[in-house]
From TrEMBL, chain A:
Protein name as it appears in the record: RNA polymerase sigma factor
SUPFAM superfamilies attached to this UniProt entry: Sigma2 domain of RNA polymerase sigma factors, Sigma3 and sigma4 domains of RNA polymerase sigma factors
Positions of the RNA polymerase sigma-70 region domain: 24-89
Source species of the chain: Compostibacillus humi
PROSITE patterns (alphabetical): SIGMA70_ECF
Length: 187, 82
């Protein structure tokens, strides 16, 4: 996969815009999901994920090809998400209704599974609660918890993605885990 | 309290895969004796399991299309200039 990505990036750098499509297709779910976990809201997630791909395209010449493209993309998406959180008005809700869907929030848009409706409801409630607790963590802890436990990056990779020393990653992941432990221990 | 603090540090080192053999012994021995730390350790592990139980969601329909439409056109011109 990294090989294809490298090839496409070379083409994009030469000015072939259409080569970028494959890159977006390859990473769209990961980046969208990352933004969604950072922001806790589908509208903002779509907005910021798009912006991340556009930024990456515009700045592609500054991307160092010896590094991993996905790490670079995650860094852009994380920074944009944190910026958005900081600029946000204080009245933002996680389960904001999706416009024009009459009371449906993003949990009802998630992929259906084999569970019974009752199980589904219970699981959705729990998921909603966990998600809410994650999205209330301070952004600098949240990004690391999300990258580590939801996207399964190693601490070393997280240090590269966020461009912070590994010691800082460890301090933050410890605090993030403790904060979530307090929030989730009664579940 | 301070004793707990030191052991909690070890728990986090454990979760990051940074525990030495000696530290592992210290921690497991303490966990056998201390109920409060046992509870703390259990809660940490459970927290991680809960976070990881959340479902995956996919990007919305036409996401790629929308990105491609929003890209600036300059790149092609740059090619000509070069």
């Amino acid at each position: 996969m990294e090989h294809i990505v490298k090839e496409r990036i070379k083409q994009v750098k030469k000015g072939d815009q259409s080569a970028y499509r494959e890159i977006v297709e390859l990473y769209q779910n990961k980046i969208y999901q990352h933004c969604y976990r950072m922001l806790g809201n589908v509208h903002e997630a779509e907005d910021i994920a798009q912006e991340a791909f556009i930024r990456a395209y515009v700045n592609i010449d500054s991307f160092d090809e010896r590094r991993k493209f996905s790490s670079w993309l995650y860094r852009i998406a994380t920074n944009l998400s944190i910026d958005r959180i900081r600029k946000r008005k204080p009245d933002y809700f996680l389960d904001a209704e999706v416009k024009g869907t009459d009371g449906l929030d993003m949990y009802s848009q998630m992929a259906a599974s084999d569970r019974t409706p009752a199980e589904e409801l219970e699981s959705n409630e729990l998921q909603r609660y966990i998600h809410k607790e994650i999205s209330e963590l301070p952004p600098k802890y949240r990004s690391i918890i999300v990258l580590r436990y939801l996207e399964e990056f190693s601490l070393q990779e997280i240090s590269e993605i966020l461009d912070i020393p590994i010691g800082t990653v460890k301090t933050r992941i410890h605090r993030g885990r403790e904060a979530l432990r307090k929030r989730l221990r009664h579940v | 309290m301070d004793a707990h603090k030191e052991h909690i540090k070890l728990m986090h080192k454990y979760l990051d895969g940074d525990l030495t053999k000696e530290e592992e012994l210290v921690l497991s021995k303490h966990l056998e004796e201390c109920e409060a730390c046992q509870k703390h350790f259990h809660e940490l592990n459970r927290t991680i399991a809960l976070i990881q139980s959340t479902e995956q969601i996919a990007a919305p329909l036409h996401f790629t299309e929308n990105v491609m439409k929003s890209l600036p056109k300059e790149k092609k011109r740059m090619k000509v200039i070069r």
